[in-house]
Amino acid sequence: MEATYLQYLLQFKRPSGTSRGVLLDKETYILTVSENEKKGVGECAIFRGLSFDDRPDYEEKLKWLCENINQDTAFLKEELKEFPSIWFGYEQAVQNLKYGDSLYFPGEFTEGKSAITINGLIWMGDAGYMEEQIQEKLEKGFHCIKLKIGVDWKSEHVILQKLREKFSKDQLELRVDANGGFSKEEAVIVLQQLADLHIHSIEQPIKAGNWNDMAELCAKTPTPIALDEELIGIIDPEKKKQLLETINPQYIILKPALVGGFSGSDEWISLAENQNIGWWITSALESNIGLNAIAQYTFTKKNPMPQGLGTGALFVNNFESDLELRNELLWFKI
């Protein structure tokens, strides 16, 4: 088997706002493995500023993988444990090599027989821009919308109030993602305000790493809390178990590129289910290559909740997509 990689810079159609700042482009790496005239493609979807493996020797490790591609899988996994996005790219490429075409996890989804329900994502911006996005999602038939919050809570709160006035919790599920944007003291107030509006859940109300504060919030919260960034960089299975037992959140959110790919996600799901913690899967601004692989994997998990998968529509220079969105359902093109 041989392997090569290519750096690729995805350009946003419109600057996308989060509580960590505005994103203009997204760097990624495409890994190709080949054997006996067959090839497999995967995406090493590093997320600068967020990924545990955002470090100076990232590309050096990718080169190392290409040079050592024929080593034992267990050895590679151990060597790449601090590079979850590279391991994720490797897992994809090997799966694709096995099945060919643009298949990673063949089944009802890739046969076009079943789809995945997803949430509509609303990016931060002024109230007008956020309301414009919301209207567009509602017109497309979404019943679950996720809003990024934590930059201007006063305005964001007003938008949520307006939404709830128009749509009951039975008509529209509302999720919010704070990306760690609140202090613990602010979070206590915000959690109650969200509960008053029947918000489904809030992702990462406070910054990751404050296990005791997060545990206190989760124990008393009137609004379910989902851990997101909190999971990044936790490699050891015992530490994962310890985190979930200490914080005991209502949900965890899995971004395969950030938590060690398919195998890393499987590990978190198993631990969460043992503790009766809910979960769903979210993409992390991958290109259509990684997004396709994540969608196929997500379908195999049979989670009926709306999943947080993107549609690839954010970028002007994305690769051709194998997925298409019909209303709130993500289908595989056949």
TrEMBL record:
Say which domain of life the source belongs to.
Bacteria
Q: Does the keyword Metal-binding apply?
A: yes
All copies of domain Mandelate racemase/muconate lactonizing enzyme C-terminal, residue ranges = 127-224
Instruction: Please list the coiled coil stretches.
Output: none
Which named protein is this? O-succinylbenzoate synthase
Which CDD domains is this protein grouped with?
OSBS
Family matches, as PROSITE patterns:
MR_MLE_2
Q: Which Pfam families match?
A: MR_MLE_C
Q: Sorted alphabetically, which keywords does the UniProt record give?
A: Metal-binding
What the entry lists under SUPFAM superfamilies is as follows:
Enolase C-terminal domain-like, Enolase N-terminal domain-like
